[in-house]
Amino acid sequence: MFGVKVPFYWFSVPENLRIEARPDYIEFYEKFSKETTENRIQRIGATIVFSLLAIYFFVEWQQRKANSVTPPMFGDLGFIPVGIFLSIAILLNLRRRIKLIVFDFSEYKVKLKPVRFSFIGSKSVSMSCPFNLIIKKKTRVRHRSDENGSWTTYYEGYEIMVKLEKRGHDSIMFLETDDIKQDYGELIGKLAAVAGIDDPLLEME
User: Fold this and answer.
1) For 8, how many CA atoms within 13 A lie in the half-sphere containing its CB?
2) pTM value?
3) Which of 89, 148, 162, 168 sees the fewest Cβ atoms within 10 Å?
């Protein structure tokens, strides 16, 4: 009904690129900087405070409900502060998870999955055989807005398109760079080697 979500990864920091390859299998990901001890302590402290506030308001809410003889005029809104403080506690612990874009040629599938809890948020589609790869220069556009107004940001880079079963070519990766050979030449070269095809960057020369 909703269709298949194609795995997709946007690489923007070439120096953080990590590649792990073995016969019939290769994965790429960006390694992010680790959280400092000071930031970790602050995050844990704030999480405890907001969690305790959520618990306090929840208990108060339940006590008011138990002692209330008549229902409130505008409904029971005690869940609002509980939800706010609980949401803040959760948001404080949402960190950018490392995700892998995986080309598995033993199953002939391309996958996107997190390093931890890979059963959550994983995506997978079947690739067409034989493997076919297209590299296309593209400008991606993002529109954003806040209280100060709205703006548009343009990102120069290259779409990495793979031919998928029953879908044709679809974008699997976007490599944000002005020089794909310098920044992502190793990525393309190793993918081509594992796939058993000629390096498409050599054809671009």
Assistant:
1) 10
2) 0.67
3) 148
Give the DSSP letter string of 109-157: EEEEEESSSTTSS-EEEEBPSS--EEEEEEEEEEEEEETTEEEEEEEEE
Alpha helix positions (H), 5-36? none
Residue from 159, 155, 154 nearest 180 by CA: 159
Structure tokens at 196: 């058993």
CA 93 to chain centre: 16
8 Å CB contact between 11 and 175: yes
Q: Nearest 5°: CA angle at 178, between 175 and 183?
A: 60
Q: Could you state, in order of their start, the residue ranges of all structural domains in the chain? A: 9-30+99-203, 37-91
CA neighbours closer than 13 Å in the CB half-sphere of residue 196: 10
Q: How many CB atoms lie within 10 A of CB 13?
A: 11
* Ramachandran sector of residue 166 (left: φ over 0; alpha: ψ -120 to 50; beta: rest): left
Contact between 190 and 19 (Cβ < 8 Å): yes
Q: Which residue reads 């602050």 in tokens?
A: 42
